[in-house]
TrEMBL record:
Homodimer. This is Iron-sulfur cluster carrier protein. It comes from Deinococcus radiopugnans ATCC 19172. Signal peptide: none annotated. It comes from the Bacteria. In the N-terminal section; belongs to the MIP18 family. InterPro entries: FSCA_dom_sf, MIP18-like, Mrp-like_CS, Mrp/NBP35_ATP-bd, NUBPL-like, P-loop_NTPase, YlxH/NBP35.
Amino acid sequence: MAALSTVNDPELHRDLVSLGMIERAEVTGGVAQIKVNLTTPACPLKGQIEREVREAALTVPGVSEAVVTFGATVRMAAQPALPGVKHVLLVGSGKGGVGKSSVAVNLAASLAADGARVGLLDADVYGPSVAHMLGQGAARVTANAERKMQPIEAFGMKFISMANLSPAGQALVWRGPMLHSAVQQFVKDAAWGELDYLIVDLPPGTGDVQLSLTQTVQVTGAVIVTTPQDVALIDAARAIDMFRKASVPVLGVVENMSYFVAPDTGNVYDLFGRGGSRKLGEGYPLLGEVPIDMEVRQDGDAGIPAVLAHPDTPAARALIGVARNLAGQVSVLAVNKELAQSLADLPDQLTVV
């Protein structure tokens, strides 16, 4: 344990022992068996942690081999966002057409594929698309024995969409109070069960749904999806300002349609410019740059997230990276809040005996 205390979590910048991440450390016949309990199953730096833990264990006299295994427990900051739900994460944009729903679906699918318990709420009431992207457009939301909405399951995650509650193709002509009531039902009257992350696909803009959500549940943070050109960045800045006013941390920015790789030549084209998201200012991590990829669109139309259907394509790899970077940001936020709370709980005056 002394040797392992020299290994820091690369994102949390504290040692694994003080963070309580070493679940087991045993030595038998010169072989060290070490189990590390990560702060998220989607840890982006798992390989680095494994390498450094092994190197530290091999410095102990008598240890000739180190076997490192992993578990994961998603940390939760203070109170749960909802009963059984550790984190509510909003995926928003200042305008439509930037691929926000595609990003939200693939983030959720990637986190679920890594082993997290994930829910996906399609809060774009007027233009729901999540059900189609998950191949569940014909499915219907039912009620359980407690008369709560039973989320539909697909690809290892739970989801609810207005598309599964209203007749296909029917336009919803609702005013603000009806939207507020619907949002409250989606989050409070649904049997989400035990979730590590509830991903919420927001409608474009900064309107009633966004306001209702931030007032209804304890939101861990938000992700901003934008494209590189200025017209999208102007609206993304408005979305950031809205979350700031609602006291919702912005966990990072996703630059979608960042570039295009020609499949025949491999040449890279910056169709909408590139790197524009950095203009949004410091303090908002760039979670990833996702290229334009026809297979993302084709997979969405076919009802299979691209990160599952074609995980080796450039866009899918980028989206998987975004999901893991997001999980890392959530872990950093949760652990920092744990530390701040523990310091706040200390007595005002300490007496040295």
